[in-house]
């Protein structure tokens, strides 16, 4: 649930950006200012005690407000419908400070960005930063139709650095050909979008070892996180409570059943909301966020998917 890192912001403006996409500009409350952030960052929006959603910041880093864009998800748990239908200018929202799992490295000779659908949102401030830095960059932005592609007008200022691909006009994209045409084989590629698109970009990067790839995922990779041979183990909480985690159960579910409150969102190891300090034991990391160094340090873990190497973990939960 909300922590000291959360802050209350005011919705300054709302706008329809494309079919099913609504943007909200969030501002600091009177006299306050919003924390600094870097391109690629996202915030948590706390919608209820157990409903938290992540949204990438899509405004310019120098702008006074934070813009998020919300895709209506008819099959979701109601978070996007609430932000579409119930929230208006003047309302307040509880949000986290920005976190960045998709940081931009401008110290690279060529940048290629790939965005699918709503995946354009974290990319927008990255383009602005690359442009300001005088970088050599191009964007491939893919969508089903013009109506579904948010912010296409904003991208017009970048001219032919931006390649728009509409399925209804050109059919499914030949992604490898598009990436070749943008020089992606020799570039640092940043991609955000549906899992099928990210898998295709990953396949391209695997076939071109001279490229570098950074992905922003909205959902876990298809192979998932559960494994044959997963064993039960014990979690000890900061106040000494012992909780058994069954073989087919997540730490989050076991703690919740035991009455220990946790904060989660994606439950797939891709958002970072459930990051928890490790006080003892060796985590078996299965998230898609921590770097090799962070895994080796073993100081924190994502308790929605990660498990224990051994019989016991002590968590600051
Ligand atoms: S809830 Fe998203 S990483 Fe655990």
List the helices and strands and how they pair.
Blueprint: E1 6-18, E2 21-28, E3 42-48, E4 51-56, E5 66-71, H1 79-85, E6 92-96, E7 111-116, H2 120-132, E8 137-143, H3 152-155, E9 162-166, H4 167-170, H5 175-181, E10 188-192, H6 195-207, E11 212-216, E12 233-236, E13 242-245, H7 251-257, E14 275-280, E15 283-284, H8 292-297, E16 300-302, E17 307-308, E18 312-315
Parallel strand pairs: 7-8, 7-10, 8-9, 10-11, 12-18
Antiparallel strand pairs: 1-2, 1-6, 2-5, 3-4, 3-6, 12-13, 14-16, 14-18, 15-17
Bound molecules: FE2/S2 (inorganic) cluster.
FE2/S2 (inorganic) cluster is lined by residues 264-267, 269-274, 287, 302, 304.
SS element count, helices: 8
Spans of 5+ residues with little confidence (pLDDT < 50)?
none
Q: Label the overall shape.
A: globular
The third-level CATH topology of the largest domain is: Rossmann fold
- List the helices and strands in order: EEEEEHEEHEHEHHEHEEEHEEHEEE
CATH superfamily of the largest domain: Nucleotide-binding domain of ferredoxin-NADP reductase (FNR) module
Oligomer: single chain
Strand order of the largest sheet: 4-3-6-1-2-5
What is the top-level CATH class of the largest domain?
A: Alpha Beta
Backbone CA Rg? 20 Å
Count structural domains: 3
Helix content: 10-25%
Heteromolecules bound: FE2/S2 (inorganic) cluster
End-to-end distance: 12 Å
**Main sheet specs:** 6 strands, antiparallel
């Amino acid at each position: 649930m909300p922590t000291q890192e959360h802050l209350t912001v005011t919705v300054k403006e709302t706008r329809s950006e494309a079919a099913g996409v609504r943007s909200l500009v969030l501002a600091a409350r009177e006299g306050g200012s919003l924390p600094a952030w870097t391109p690629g960052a996202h915030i948590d929006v706390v919608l209820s005690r157990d409903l938290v959603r992540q949204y990438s910041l899509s405004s310019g880093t120098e702008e006074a407000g934070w813009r998020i864009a919300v895709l209506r998800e008819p099959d979701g748990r109601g978070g996007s419908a609430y932000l579409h239908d119930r929230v208006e200018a003047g309302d307040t929202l509880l949000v986290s400070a920005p976190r960045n799992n998709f940081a931009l490295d401008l110290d690279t000779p060529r940048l290629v960005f790939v965005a699918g659908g709503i995946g354009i949102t974290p990319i927008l401030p990255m383009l602005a930063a690359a442009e300001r830095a005088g970088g050599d960059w191009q964007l491939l932005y893919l969508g089903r139709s013009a109506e579904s592609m948010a912010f296409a007008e904003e991208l017009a200022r970048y001219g032919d650095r931006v390649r728009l691909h509409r399925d209804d006009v050109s059919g499914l994209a030949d992604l490898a050909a598009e990436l070749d045409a943008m020089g992606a084989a020799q570039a640092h590629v940043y991609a955000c979008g549906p899992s099928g698109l990210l898998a295709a970009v990953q396949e391209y990067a695997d076939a071109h070892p001279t490229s570098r790839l950074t992905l922003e995922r909205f959902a876990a990779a298809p192979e998932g996180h559960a494994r044959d041979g997963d064993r039960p183990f014990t979690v000890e909480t900061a106040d000494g409570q012992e909780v058994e985690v069954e073989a087919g159960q997540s730490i989050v579910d076991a703690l919740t059943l035991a009455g220990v409150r946790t904060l989660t969102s994606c439950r797939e190891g891709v958002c970072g909301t459930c990051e928890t300090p490790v006080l003892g034991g060796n985590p078996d990391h299965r998230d898609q966020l921590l770097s090799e160094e962070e895994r080796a340090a073993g100081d924190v873990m994502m308790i929605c998917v990660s498990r224990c190497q051994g019989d016991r973990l002590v968590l600051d939960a």
